[in-house]
Structures are given as C-alpha cells and as structure tokens.
Amino acid sequence: xxxxxxxxxxxxxxxxxxxxxxxxxxxxxxxxxxxxxxxxxxxxxxxxxxxxxxxxxxxxxxxxxxxxxxxxxxxxxxxxxxxxxxxxxxxxxxxxxxxxxxxxxxxxxxxxxxxxxxxxxxxxxxxxxxxxxxxxxxxxxxxxxxxxxxxxxxxxxxxxxxxxxxxxxxxxxxxxxxxxxxxxxxxxxxxxxxxxxxxxxxxxxxxxxxxxxxxxxxxxxxxxxxxxxxxxxxxxxxxxxxxxxxxxxxxxxxxxxxxxxxxxxxxxxxxxxxxxxxxxxxxxxxxxxxxxxxxxxxxxxxxxxxxx
Length: 308
Ligand code: UDP
Hints:
The chain is α/β, with parallel strands linked by helices. The protein has 9 helices and 13 strands. It has helices at 11-22, 79-84, 86-107, 143-163, 187-197, 216-228, 245-255, 280-286, 294-307; strands at 2-6, 26-31, 50-54, 69-72, 110-116, 167-172, 175-176, 201-204, 210-212, 214-215, 234-237, 242-244, 262-265. The longest helix is centred in the N-terminal third of the chain and has 22 residues, at 86-107. The chain is globular. The structure holds uridine-5'-diphosphate. Uridine-5'-diphosphate binds at residues 78-79, 174, 186-187, 190, 202-204, 209, 211, 245, 268, 271. Uridine-5'-diphosphate binds next to helix 5 and strand 8.
C-alpha cells in the first residue's frame, strides 16, 4: 500500500512509519514539527519507499498520485502541549482532520483517525467500552484536545455515512516507549527522567488516579490490524492492566534502581480519576491483545532514556 501518515515525526507516527516500511509498504510522512522531531525519522530518510514532507495539515494537503490509506496521527498529545498550543490542537483535530479525510476521499483511500481515550473524559464507568459516550468538560484546559478529537470522530462517521468511505477510528489509550520526549510532561517520561537523575519524582494529587499503559509495539500492531479490518467504527486500542500513578512512580523508581523521593504536587484540572480500556472488541474483531508486560516495556523505555 501507499500510505500517508500525518504526524509522522511524532512518537507514535514514527514507530508506525517504521513498521509499515518494514512490512513492504510505501510511506509518505508529513509533519509540521510543532511537537514532532526530525530525529525520530532521520533513520528512515535513506529508504527508497519513504518520503518526508514538512507541512501543516490544517492547510490544504496536496499529494500527487495514488494513495491507499491516509493515517491522521498529527496532534499535540500531552497535557502540557495542549496548554502551550491550545489553538493548534483544536485546529489539527478539526481543520486537519477535514483536510486529511478530504484527501482520502479524493484518492478513494481508507481514512484512519488517531482518536483517544480522552473522548471519555473523566469517565463515570470503568473500564470504558466503545459504547460509552464520555464525561468531558468542553471548556476546561483538556477540552481543546478532547473536543477536537470528538469532532474528528463525528466528521469521520459523517463521511462514512454520507460518502460511504472506509474509515477507521482508533481510540488510543496511554502509550509509552522509546522516542517520547524527555520533556514531554507525561507521567512516564517525567518519572524516568527524574528517577535517573535522582531528582524527586513528581506525583500529582495523591497518585491514586489510575492509568493503563500500553507499550508502543503492541499499540502499532493493534493499529495495523485495525487498518486491515473492515471496522468502520471506533475501537479501543490499549492495555487493560490498570495501575495507580503512585504505583507507577514506585515501579519506575525500582526498575531504574533510583533513590529519588516522591514529591506530591497539585492535581491538574480535570485530570481523569480512572482510565482503563475495555478491549473486548479489539480482541474479538482484530484477534489482538497486548503482549509486552509493564515491567518489560518500562525496562526498554528506561534503557532508551539512559542512552539518549
Ligand atoms: N502525572 C503525575 N506526575 C507527572 C506527570 C503526570 O503524577 O509528573 C499524572 C497526571 O496527573 C495523570 C497521570 O499522571 O494523572 C497521567 O498523566 P499523563 O500526562 O501521562 O497522561 P494523561 O493524563 O493524558 O493520561
């Protein structure tokens, strides 16, 4: 297949690009490098099947020739990024999705949206199945990301119904692994950086809030299975192993053999209290489930941060 990936220089986009190339596909990577980094894809530049285009996908996207799939993975994706770039976050989820899906329609290509567990907001039910409509504060600091992604899902489903397009919606839960930025602001890179430097590990609130962390290679496999499936509806892709943030901090400290103390900081506004994917649909329809344990994934990620 010939595939366009928006956000190709980002954490997930770069791993996706790499795996698609390994599996014999042609990849055009697009990114405006707002939060993506060229270092993430530099090693792909010599490959005949890879091309990179620096472009902001909130503007018209022109790609010559055929395309079989458009994977829209461009967006700031960390709470500190939404705070710093609230309007670009809204624009890439809304205008960028419109441009990317319009291109897919023009080319007769499959459109895939990188959606998010944030569509569930601060969920009232746990775990979250795809049928749950969510509990989102539209005007809070996270609302710029959550609502843009909810709009993007609505747009994809409208194109599905009105134009009969092939659309895939991956609701991606917390994912971690090599190529996350050290200063990304999310729990895993923060905790690892702090633990390796012997600095206090910053746990927000009491650390009793939960997350369920999926290692990047598992996520990529789920995404690629979804792409090949005929499922024109949202599918949760994530690891259902749920842990508290305090437990995550302690696990990272132990694996990094660190003596850092835990420093409690205020809980950010609208921080979801729980989050865990119900992956029954992905298990059944994609025959997919995560394979990498949290300890193994964290070990690999700690190694990456140690050596980079
Ligand atoms: N968190 C924390 N300390 C940090 C960074 C994050 O305690 O230095 C908490 C954050 O408040 C949230 C959880 O860890 O409850 C996961 O945060 P992250 O930013 O990784 O992802 P998200 O909130 O989008 O799931």
